[in-house]
Amino acid sequence: MNLTPIQLRRRRGVFSMAILSLASLIGFGFLQKNTAPVTFRFVLEKEWVAIHEWTLDSRSGSYGFSAAALLISLWAFFQFRRDKKVHVQSALGGFSLLMAFMCWAASGKMIPFTGLLQGALLLSVPLIFGSMAGVLCERSGVINIAIEGQLLASAFAAGVVASLTKNTTWGLLVAPLAGALISLILATFAIKFSIDQVILGFVINVLVIGMTNFLYKKLLIPYQNTWNSGPILKPIEIPLLSKIPVLGPIFFSQTIIVYLMYAIVLAIHFSLFKTKWGLRTRAIGEHPTAADSVGISVNSLRFKNVIIAGLVAGIGGAYFTVGAVGAFGKEMTAGKGFIALAALIFGRWSPLGAVMAALLFGFADNLQGILSITGTPIPSEFMLMAPYIATIIAVTGFVGRVRAPAADGIPYSRESSH
């Protein structure tokens, strides 16, 4: 029986889930000696209450969820043999393994489950914006290593303008312009002058880090009250939806940046796969010569898409300042642009795939923070490595062949195509 690459990846995932389930059953269940209860709290603020909290014996919980994951693995195996689709089983199996781990790691502690998911979403916001900028660029055939610089420049611009005007709206409006300015540099040198895009991206990042560090030292620190003490956006509760248990506080009690993120992700996904612009964008990223032969201006469309990507990344950069803490901090993006790039690769250059990868990284980041506070047998340093380990697994092909758009990073000119 010949299987497609996607089906081979799914089969590999089924066997991996079975192996992890057995390991969980032994490690988190059989070998665990602590039977202290673990409590999952589901109420965060003022939402309607379905279940206030759930307390169970940590060893029994680990056993139960690990056994459930093993049964789901068997279900996935038979389902794969039937129709080669295991999406539901993969989601349920992953959730069961996660719950088994938390029962073991938080034995004798309380996990604010709704707060954990809400924090994961918030930590994912700049990653999602950054990965969407990467999707727009790389689907067009331009490698965007400069996501870090776009986020950092936008965070700086938003923080400074909001501080000077004492108005978050102006900070939020100027941030996309700062991101677009960095994209203009990227597009000019990568598309017009055919500079190596990987080296160019790193140079842009170093340039932005150097400039923001200089201005931070010379301007923001000495005149902090004027230049670096901006307000932050307030959460907007959507009536009724914000009261839904668990889901309400997570998705519908957020700032305008998060709501913009929902709209932008859906717009990019729909436009990329359902519109003429999306078809042309994918064409210039895969087969620019063929696109040119039917009248598409390859470099012009690439240039426009890179600028749009900068606008998108700029909103993500604003989250660091006007969306979170107000004041700008030295190198405050802390490598989030590179994690966004990893999410893009992990998500296979798909908008929704990149979002899921970014949410995974955000969840791992928030989980290690909560477990470090509550106390866990795992050193926090190991938890911090989780997103990067997932990235290494993705790019080394363990989850299947990862292929970028065929013309990604390759400058195009009519002369060289003939």
Describe the structure.
By secondary structure, this protein is mainly alpha-helical. The protein folds into 2 domains: 5-113, no CATH class; 126-410, no CATH class. Helices cover 70% and strands 4% of the residues. The protein has 18 helices and 5 strands. The chain has helices at residues 5-30, 58-83, 87-105, 113-138, 147-165, 168-192, 197-220, 224-227, 247-251, 256-274, 276-286, 288-293, 298-325, 336-346, 351-374, 380-384, 386-395, 414-417, and strands at residues 37-41, 53-57, 110-112, 236-237, 253-254. The strands form 2 sheets. A 3-stranded mixed β-sheet has the order 2-1-3. It is globular and about 65 Å long. The model has no long low-confidence stretch (mean pLDDT 89).
Descriptive terms for the model:
418 residues; mainly alpha; two-stranded antiparallel ribbon
The number of domains is 2
The counted number of beta strands is 5
Rg over alpha carbons: 23 Å
Strand content: under 5%
Largest sheet: 3 strands, mixed
**Tally of alpha and pi helices:** 18
Binned, the helix content reads 55-70%
Low-confidence stretches: none
From the spread of the alpha carbons, the general shape counts as: globular
Structural class: mainly alpha
Mean pLDDT: 89
Side by side, the strands of the main sheet go: 2-1-3
